[in-house]
């Protein structure tokens, strides 16, 4: 278990040093544990460079399963530690949705449902609701989700946004700044990318323009807020940033994204607490 825990932490941080700090051991101990795991499996899990490590193909295959497993352990233990007189509901959603949509609304939920504790599980890995560690999942895609009860929360769109300090007021002005990209985990022509946006706008995609790429959508949002470039982002996830004036949409078009779905197990009846959370989510999605 210690070798698996060391691998998961190092893969999540992309660093043996940061994994060691989390596990309260030395970087050398983390390296030895991962080497022992590699020897046991007979495969190399990390490419090691000076001050940097990255997952191999085998490491990329192992990491999501381990991450979900440890997350399930954590949720189950937290539930055992929750006082019996309080009800708890666990929601699983993507990292960006938790950070930019759910977290800002938690205070409202607590004010309206003081007897229910929300546990927010953020992961871009699809969780298994059959594990009973999660009550509700918010999935982003086309659907359907066979074997689950699924309701549409809302459809999303993607818009070009910038920090207002940048002098971008027309598509032609974008050439002076990097394009901020969010790299989708699965390649699809339906993904709301800059390539698709330029095609729908009837503008040629520049081949020499600087780029910034992020694997986490919330990081791409923060990059736009920091004025690092022009970003194509979820209208739902940047609504608060636009309302606060930290971002603006200088021009269109908006292109369709995917749809957020509220998903739970088909065969299990929802408790009063789970029903209250789902009703609250639907109300705020209107």
TrEMBL record:
Domain HTH lysR-type: residue ranges: 1-56
Family annotation (PROSITE patterns): HTH_LYSR
Keywords in alphabetical order: DNA-binding, Transcription, Transcription regulation
Pfam families assigned to the protein according to its UniProt record, in alphabetical order: HTH_1, LysR_substrate
InterPro entries: LysR-type_TF_proteobact-type, LysR_HTH_N, LysR_subst-bd, WH-like_DNA-bd_sf, WH_DNA-bd_sf
UniProt-listed CDD domains: PBP2_GcdR_TrpI_HvrB_AmpR_like
Keyword DNA-binding: yes
Recorded family membership: Belongs to the LysR transcriptional regulatory family.
Name listed for the protein in its UniProt record: LysR substrate-binding domain-containing protein
Annotated organism of origin: Luteimonas lutimaris
């Amino acid at each position: 278990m210690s070798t698996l825990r060391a691998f998961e932490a190092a893969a999540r941080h992309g660093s043996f040093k940061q994994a060691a700090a989390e596990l309260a051991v030395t970087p050398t101990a983390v390296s030895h544990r991962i080497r022992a795991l590699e020897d046991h499996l007979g495969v190399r899990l990390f490419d090691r460079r000076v001050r940097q490590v990255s997952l191999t193909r085998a490491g990329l295959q192992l990491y999501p399963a381990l991450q979900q497993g440890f997350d399930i352990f954590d949720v189950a233990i937290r539930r055992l530690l929750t006082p019996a007189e309080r009800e708890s509901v666990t929601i699983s959603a993507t990292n960006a949705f938790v950070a930019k949509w759910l977290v800002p609304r938690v205070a409202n939920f607590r004010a309206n449902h003081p007897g229910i504790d929300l546990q927010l599980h953020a992961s871009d890995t699809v969780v298994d609701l059959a594990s009973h560690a999660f009550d509700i999942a918010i999935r982003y895609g086309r659907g359907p989700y066979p074997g689950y009860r699924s309701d549409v929360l809302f459809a999303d769109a993607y818009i070009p946004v910038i920090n207002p300090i940048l002098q971008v007021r027309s598509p032609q002005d974008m050439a002076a700044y990097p394009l901020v990209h969010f790299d989708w985990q699965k390649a699809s022509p339906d993904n709301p990318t800059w390539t698709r946006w330029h095609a729908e706008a009837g503008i040629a995609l520049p081949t020499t323009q600087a780029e910034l790429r992020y694997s986490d959508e919330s990081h791409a949002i923060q990059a736009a807020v920091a004025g690092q470039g022009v970003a194509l982002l979820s209208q739902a996830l940047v609504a608060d940033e636009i309302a606060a004036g930290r971002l603006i949409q200088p021009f269109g078009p908006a292109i369709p994204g995917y749809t957020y779905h509220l998903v739970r197990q088909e065969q299990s009846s929802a408790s009063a607490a789970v029903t209250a959370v789902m009703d609250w989510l639907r109300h705020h999605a209107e």
